[in-house]
User: Fold this.
Amino acid sequence: MPYETGARVKLTKDVQVTANETAARIGFPGPLCLAEGLEGIVTGSAKEAGGVAQDGLAEFERQIRGVQFDGFTADLIDNLRQQIIQHGGFGAGVGAQIRYRVRFENGFVLGGLEEDWLTRA
Assistant:
């Protein structure tokens, strides 16, 4: 069931936030995860296309993974992500899915959450 912006949701499973190498660089022994049951509010969504657009987004994410950006730069990067998603969405309807951005109670904002990772709170 699609969620609208402002809907209260909670995680249905633990979600990894950092890669192992990123966690090690910032002093954690393993990957940082958000726990199942954590509640938050949907702040946005985007329909992602499969195929070439998804591959482009994955490559983009790989290149910037582990880098901390100031707020303005992070907004620009999010805008680039949305452009990659939208560009792929025009030609490819197959495999398209909605992914959500959620602001959790602990302050984390996590984008790219699949619909089956969330349930109504």
About this structure: The helical segments are 20-25, 52-64, 71-91. Confidence is low (pLDDT under 50) at residues 90-94. The chain has three helices and seven strands. The first helix runs from residue 20 to 25.
